[in-house]
Amino acid sequence: MDLKKTTLPLFFGTIFSMVGFAQTIENVTAAAEGSKIIITYDLVSTDDNQKFDIELFSSHNDFEKPALLVKGDVGENIKPGAGKRVEWNARAELRNFKGQVSVEVRGQVKKPMYTFLSPKAKSGLRKGKPASIVWEGGSDNQRFKLELVQNDVVIQGLGTVPNTGLYTWTVPTDTKTGKGYRFRITAGDEVVDSQEFSVKGKTPLWVMLSPIPVVAAGGTLFYLWYAEQQRLKDHLAIPPDVSEIGN
Length: 247
Prior knowledge:
It is a single chain. Strand 18 and strand 19 (221-224) form a beta hairpin. This protein is mainly β. It has helices at residues 90-94, 205-208, 227-234, and strands at residues 15-16, 23-33, 36-45, 52-58, 70-72, 75-78, 81-88, 103-109, 114-118, 124-126, 130-137, 143-150, 153-162, 166-170, 178-187, 190-193, 197-200, 212-215, 221-224. It is elongated and about 75 Å long. The protein has 3 helices and 19 strands.
């Protein structure tokens, strides 16, 4: 195979996803560089944390089996992004093949071993309050590392926990308030992040003592205070009738 003379008609690589058209492979290009073929592509996804299994196929075998002598952004656990690059040692793999070669990039959404169910996306956890971390997947006898991360930086290790599907964690009071937090499971080569959530401050005292408006049947607006305030009110002494003083 004379790669210098080989033209490379391109096939647009489509990605097969269980969630429809939220993921695509775009801008696939290929060019011969000596004995190798360099393929570039963009992997577009609505979830930046989603991972994919990417394979390269060629027309030399009617796209039946993926190319083997490849490296770069190909294989398992490929994250979304632009300018992905695959290097295919075509001369070594095709050997005596002669003719034009077309390439196709294919991918599948990688199904994680674990899936977070809680916390939900854009939810908020409060300092000093317990939070339920819920997940599913894996086997009963597995253990994994659980961490708190913010903007992909590990903030705190929660320890190695058993795969029970539930872990209750109290948010430390010295945790910085803000967005971009996630929980992360690391089990061998498997790394799975939860949906993004925020950490909020403790519930202010004024909120705890705020009145609750209640509208009576007659339209009069009343304010009912919380139990503690009502209890104090009930224990106030009843003032004497000034008209009876001195009698």
